[in-house]
Design brief:
The chain is α/β, with parallel strands linked by helices. The chain is 33% helix and 11% strand.
Length: 294
């Protein structure tokens, strides 16, 4: 979007280094304040690598100083520009192409990584929110709410990556819906460290509905189902549901059938990869990066 000397952006922008986007945004905000330009707002953005890992110290400093910046994280749960590398946002048990597992079990280990929305809440900044690409209106409203405020604000957006996850491109929005409906990714908003809004689960589904659509989890289903790991992932989703009170009182009343049927798709067997027709442009790359589960 920004090849020198052209730009598709219709506003001033700064392309910072990988790890210092929050610091650069805070510096621009401070400069504008010194010049008395309160009419200009500052937005910083980065992927999960530049937010959760490399830029995390800068982000925490921005929160502590309560700099007048809205920072947005686009979370696809890995460093995709380095060939699918593990990040601090990569979930447990997910395989990545070029970060090899430690120990006999394939996939990312449990107990690592960071929950940045919760960390941002611990800083008690004015506004924290999560959103997914499946609900653009919700994201739009949260951006509008954030821009009504001053001080540090943070929005964490869940963005599936078909190539990096080994999923069909047509399942992108479906995955973003399922991650919410399973409880794996709570969608909420918080102000000054207190949760003020929760997007309820409309039809609760087991985590397997989400996992089986992605090759990065195929090893959990073939050659045999890894019940122990799946139960641990389910327990994490259930904990989110309890923590954020995600179940609606009439949950499931108006949504018959499972979440896969809701998307208008034919259910696949657990661990079955997307059909070649579903992702013909990326099938070969998916095989190269994910291959067969070890």
């Amino acid at each position: 979007s920004t090849p020198y000397p052209e730009s598709s952006w219709q506003l001033p922008w700064v392309h910072s280094l990988f790890g210092n986007a929050p610091a650069v945004a805070a510096g621009v905000s401070a400069a504008l304040r010194a010049k008395g330009r309160e009419d200009i707002r500052v937005v910083g953005q980065a992927g999960d690598g530049g937010t959760v890992d490399i830029g995390f110290a800068c982000l925490s400093g921005m929160f502590e100083r309560n700099d007048d910046v809205l920072f947005v994280c686009y979370d696809n749960e890995g460093y995709m520009n380095t060939g699918v590398q593990r990040s601090g946002a990569t979930p447990p048990a997910a395989r990545t192409a070029n970060t090899k597992p430690v120990g006999p079990e394939p996939g990312n280990v449990f107990g690592q990584g960071k929950n940045v929305p919760m960390i941002a809440m611990a800083h008690e900044i004015p506004y924290v929110a999560t959103a997914t690409v499946a609900e653009p209106r919700d994201l739009e409203l949260k951006v509008e709410r954030a821009m009504e405020m001053r001080g540090a604000r943070y929005i964490h957006v869940f963005v599936p990556c078909p190539l990096g996850w080994g999923a069909a491109s047509k399942d992108t929005i479906r995955l973003a819906r399922l991650v919410k409906e399973t409880g794996i990714f709570p969608v909420f908003a918080a102000e000054d460290g207190e949760v003020t809004e929760v997007s309820k689960i409309r039809r609760h589904v087991p985590v397997t509905e989400y996992l089986k659509l992605q090759r990065r989890y195929a090893h959990l289903f073939k050659p045999e189902v890894n019940t122990e790991v799946i139960e641990r992932l389910q327990a994490g989703a259930d904990r989110n549901i309890r923590r954020f009170d995600l179940l609606a009182a009439d949950e499931g009343a108006e949504f018959p059938g499972d979440a896969t049927a809701q998307a208008g798709e034919t259910s696949r067997e657990p661990g079955e990869p997307p059909t070649p027709e579903a992702d013909s442009s990326t099938t070969m790359l998916l095989k190269e990066t994910h291959g067969n589960p070890r």
